[in-house]
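pasting for the record
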Amino acid sequence: MTDQETAPGATDETEALRAALATAEAATQDNWNKYLRAAADLDNVRKRAARDVEQARKFGIERLVAELLAVVDSLEMGMAVGQTASTESLLEGKEATLRLLRSVLEKSGVSEVMPAGQAFDPQLHEALSIQPAPAAVPGSVIAVIQKGYQLNGRLLRPARVVVAGEAAEGGAAVTGQDTEVSG
């Protein structure tokens, strides 16, 4: 037999193989198109997520700023009437503005750290000095120089405090490591 002459069963087999190949190529092309669409969708999701994060970063404090505008308005009104208003009305205006500002901060998750009378906590407090205080428990906060603040439980600024030390002879405060002589 020559190359030109093929057995009748071989032609059917060749045609079947060609049909199977065409079907496989079509399935391959279809899967490749599905892959490309999935990759493009994933890329779009990444871009959208990045855009959303950027928008959240850019405008995340929008609510806070909108509420702070009321505080600005209150301060501007106080400045406008400052020359003609009485001291008492100016003080009342300052107090109202402070209440408004505290309300805005509270709504935003900011809370004060006011540790007067509590045990000193180095995680929340910064000791500025240690003084003898016979009436106070050693290691407790006897005075707050500056309030601290937390944002949703995370420390923004520690409270600056004076801590009670043990009273020793001669008016010195005795601590675990240092001795500070008072006045």
